[in-house]
Specification:
6-phosphogluconate dehydrogenase C-terminal fold, alpha/beta, three-stranded mixed sheet, six-stranded parallel sheet, Rossmann fold, elongated, about 290 residues, about 55% helix, homodimer
């Protein structure tokens, strides 16, 4: 499917993609670009990449496909560098959980490119966990996962098809949304819940946390994610997140008023609506 | 440990206690009081009770120990009935997740009792899940769980010791708090998170919920709990919950402002504080 592939940041997400591509014979050669030799050695030993390098600029020059798989702030930086150094017609994609900021950055970098073009297709596989790093990578991470592509009016049709085929070949169900639609939805189901989980932990007293049983552990699990990484996600998706925060604030205020007023019907209505919507939409996921 | 035990509501919580008491030889005879013969038959077949009856009034008269294990609203109702019918000196306890309302109800019922007394000790084992009913009961449910006792100045010392020994004998670590302290802590780690989980589901669009990955599933899992049951918990613990809702509202507002203002330091501080507090307090629980 691809000859020379570069994966920038072969950690959990990028390394798992490398493993899956090798296992499925989708790449002739994969070069991993990282910032620590030890991680690159490990990625190579695991079979996620064929070769490792610390030199992003040199690595992307010969690639047919570059996958940006570092954290989201770094993806923005790597995108600008890669766009300026990749060969004409090569495909650039990424795995970032915020899409508008990355698409905007790529567009700016493309405008600044003096000749030829790079074909960019934004992507976001919804897989992974609080775990990070190449040691957590596995070839079946994308099996039955969802991958969102975020093509725009400027996206090359052939590149879009090939990136879709790549994610399908590693096991994903692929859907497509405009970058801003992706960002709004991810704010609702990922970035807002992360903020809320952090706020729940920060509201509870130390004594109360000591008592915490399973429900609290589940509800706040995402709050154990890396703080700097999530700071970047919050800020890079600031507009859509702010909108979700306002929406949540209204729903929450209405619920709090119902409790304050002892309004049994209103309290039950909110709870029943949430239960029905959650159970209906996610029957098989528990 | 006890001769004649009555468990009112032998479902997941009460049935598991019955199983654990039988397995550990803590009760000579356990009578289950329910409102459906089929459930009582099942509880008996599983060995959680020796006998089942629909008649609460008749059942509690001979008991040395009555455990109220129905849903929290019913516990309040059963408490009044039981206090009036139990024999002098018998011990009454419960498993309700709201304590002040139950303790107040028992005090009123004790005041109304014409002669003799019943020795009440409030309890709340922090175990169980979204599952309900006798079919989910198991003898090891309380192994390594926490059980909160909520004695007051009026609680009989011997009864307090015996109820503590009971929960320890089925595997619990027992801690003691005043009812209002219990309610405040449970509001923070259980009732507020439930409200927030429901609000997260009700904030997300249908399309976004379709995309939902693991993080959202975990954060909102409790929102699939029974709506009527949680309505009662919210209202019976209305005072403490309203306080937690206000506290959360302030923490949330501060975070939302930081996002709105693009204040990277403030956003990271909130996230880092939550991560540190969660990781520090719950190292082994993931």
């Amino acid at each position: 499917m691809f000859q020379n592939v570069v994966i920038v940041g072969p950690g959990l997400i990028g390394g798992s993609l490398g493993l899956a591509m090798k296992e499925n014979g989708l790449a002739e050669r994969i070069v991993g670009v990282g910032h620590r030799t030890s991680s690159l050695d490990r990625a190579r030993a695991m079979g996620a990449i064929d070769e490792g390098t610390l030199d992003l600029v040199a690595a992307v020059g010969e690639a047919d496909l570059v996958v940006l798989a570092a954290s989201v702030q770094l993806i923005c930086e790597h995108a600008s560098t890669a766009v300026g150094r990749m060969k004409d017609g090569a495909i650039l994609t990424d795995v970032g959980s915020v899409k508008q900021a990355i698409c905007d950055g790529v567009r700016d970098a493309l405008d600044a490119r003096s000749e030829g073009t790079v074909r960019f297709v934004g992507a976001h596989p919804l897989a992974g966990s609080e775990q990070r790093g190449i040691q957590a990578a596995r070839g079946d991470l994308y099996q039955d996962a969802l991958c969102v592509l975020t093509p725009t009016g400027e996206t090359d049709g052939d590149a879009r098809t090939r990136v879709r085929q790549l994610w399908e070949a590693v096991g994903c169900r692929v859907v497509e949304y405009a970058p801003e639609v992706h960002d709004r939805m991810l704010a609702q189901i990922s970035h807002l819940p992360h903020v809320v989980a952090a706020c729940l932990v920060n509201t509870a007293s130390d004594d109360a946390i000591e008592l915490a049983a399973g429900g609290f552990m589940d509800t706040t699990r995402v709050a154990s994610g890396d703080a700097a990484l999530w700071r970047d996600i919050c800020l890079l998706n600031r507009k859509a997140l702010a909108e979700s925060l306002r929406d949540f604030g209204e729903v929450f205020h209405r619920f709090a008023q119902a409790v304050e007023n002892g309004d049994a019907k209103a309290v039950e209505d909110e709870l029943a609506r949430a239960k029905t919507r959650r159970d209906d939409r996610m029957p098989s996921k528990g």
